[in-house]
Amino acid sequence: MDEICAKSKPRDRILDTATELFRRHGIRGIGVDAIAEAAGTNKMTLYRHFGSKDELIAECLRHQAEKFDRKWTAIEAAGDARAQLSAWIRLAGDYLEREKRGCDLANTAVELHEDDDHPARAVIEAFKIAQRDRLAVVCRAAGADDAELLADTLYLMLEGARVSRQSIGPEGPCSRFVKAAEAAVRSAIGEPRQVAAT
Amino acid sequence: MDEICAKSKPRDRILDTATELFRRHGIRGIGVDAIAEAAGTNKMTLYRHFGSKDELIAECLRHQAEKFDRKWTAIEAAGDARAQLSAWIRLAGDYLEREKRGCDLANTAVELHEDDDHPARAVIEAFKIAQRDRLAVVCRAAGADDAELLADTLYLMLEGARVSRQSIGPEGPCSRFVKAAEAAVRSAIGEPRQVAAT
DNA sequence: GCGGGAAGTTACAGACCAGTCACACCCACG
DNA sequence: CGTGGGTGTGACTGGTCTGTAACTTCCCGC
């Protein structure tokens, strides 16, 4: 963990290292000095690239949001809208099995508490709204009776699964997310024409 | 907010004040000194009653868990199992409208991050498992085709709604929780014999 | 009224933190 | 060669935090 990639530029190393350490220790649980050192650089360079710790946090989340956005290309390649819904569920399930911590953006929103002016706030809100709306578009295209309702249901279940993994652990309800989400889709639309999940 | 109740004993005032301040600022966002002062007492008295800040946090959550447990008596008074499910949803919806912050126990789990030895961990895990299992019992009694699946679905949706309120705000998907949860119950069981919700 | 335990007061230790400054360095490009 | 921009270094300010110690004061039951 000393250096994510020795040859990359300091700015990129700081961004990657900070993302990793914020995830592990929380934005209040790690200091800028420790981030800079872990990134194989120093505090001054960090402050020259990002004006403050809060700006660094916001930039990390922007980076994460873009990474999530790119996953939609894989979903859109899954076939028709009904298959895309199954692909979305499968990808979310994979994420739940892989990542011990939940969504960095949601976790940061929790850690921010009453701090409404934090630069990360706008990033989180915009990203979360976009994710839900993108899901709603697929639900509509898949012919759900009430696409908005199905999108809300799936969105809430995923958010819940990610936070539940942190309170109960991986054996709890979050391990049944895929099954529950598929059931919700089936009851709103019906079976997919060609089975997408194994 | 200076003193929650001037005449109560210091221990109770500290507990109530700490619960309130932890909710507002997060467990890392408020110091024991500020808690003691807001409770109309001092740090020494706080440390004499609770051995450490971590123990105080755990005790606050234990307190909160008992408060939630007591709400089940109202749910059980709502009638048969199907009516109890609607009562559970209505109560959760009220909670979402009333409380700006989500569940203190889940939020603390997020704030704890990799700290697996924290005394609050056991409290959170036991409480969350108990809540889900209690919900599953009602789902089974209400005659759900797959009671475990319905319990997971409702539990995940509520957890998601509470965390979503903190990232998107009260206008987002969390405002449609009641509608989505009722739809999930209807699709798993059917209409209640006597309408419980207005 | 008086004794004892609970509560308040003040000060302190030791650690951590965000952010700034002055200065030295290094390397690529002209 | 040399110069300038990006980078490294260490020290520093001023603040916050948990937890402890020694001492005083208050109040309730007897």
From TrEMBL, chains A, B:
Occurrences of domain HTH tetR-type (ranges): 8-68
Signal peptide: none
Keyword Transcription regulation among record annotations: yes
Positions in coiled-coil regions: none
Domain of life from the UniProt record: Bacteria
Keyword annotations of the record: DNA-binding, Transcription, Transcription regulation
InterPro entries (alphabetical): Homeodomain-like_sf, HTH_TetR, Tet_transcr_reg_TetR-rel_C_sf
Pfam families per record: TetR_N
DNA-binding interval(s): 31-50
PANTHER family noted in UniProt: HTH-TYPE TRANSCRIPTIONAL REGULATOR YJDC, TRANSCRIPTIONAL REGULATORY PROTEIN
Protein name: TetR/AcrR family transcriptional regulator
Organism for this UniProt entry: Alsobacter ponti
